[in-house]
């Protein structure tokens, strides 16, 4: 007679996140209490609209520079094609509504790039957004960008000159809450390689700030 061994049912373990500390709670509350404010001087918004330039179905953005003026350019890749913005004037200087299917989205290329258009035709621009990639989050002269989400899923973009979180000083002095994504998904955020432009892209629009005078071709302005 074979003896049957009764196996015990697996014990279900309760997995839960540890409670946040008093320090974490205070930091979250401080972030929640900080209203959206304009970026400090020398930064200025490029577009007049509060939420920047509408780009429906936006997938990602990338930076390059104009071969003639030296202005930062922002390439926007969306479900409706490719567009190119002058990051100093806000002008849309090129549009391709029907890009080659092989290059219409950056995920088809190992370096997440798309072909340039308009004045940058013949080059490629790396795109950060839905498919990955990233933009600069610091500048050589001490500006920092970061995203926090104290009330998920709404992301907040912070600009600072104090090195980033935890932002010991008062809001509006060395750190500023400049963008709150309450209506669309955040796609990408960062500085241009020159450090002259801030870009924040969501699934529906692009917001830009520059610290370069609109009618100047001078080198990078210092804060």
Give a concise summary.
The protein is mainly β. It is built from 1 helix and 15 strands; from the N terminus they run αβββββββββββββββ.
How big a fraction of the residues is strand?
Answer: 25-35%
Number of helices: 1
* DSSP summary, beta strand count: 15
Note the overall shape. globular
Helix content: under 10%
Describe this protein with a few key phrases.
single chain, 223 residues, mainly beta, five-stranded antiparallel β-sheet, 1 helix, globular
Protein architecture, described:
The chain has 223 residues and is mainly beta. The protein has one helix spanning 22-33; strands spanning 44-45, 53-54, 58-65, 72-78, 81-86, 92-96, 113-115, 124-126, 128-129, 144-151, 154-160, 175-181, 186-191, 197-202, 205-210. Strands 1, 2, 13, 14 and 15 form a 5-stranded antiparallel beta sheet that branches. The longest helix is centred in the first third of the chain and has 12 residues, at 22-33.
Compile the SSE list and pairings.
Layout: H1 22-33, E1 44-45, E2 53-54, E3 58-65, E4 72-78, E5 81-86, E6 92-96, E7 113-115, E8 124-126, E9 128-129, E10 144-151, E11 154-160, E12 175-181, E13 186-191, E14 197-202, E15 205-210
Antiparallel strand pairs: 1-15, 2-15, 3-4, 3-9, 4-5, 5-6, 7-8, 10-11, 11-12, 13-14, 14-15
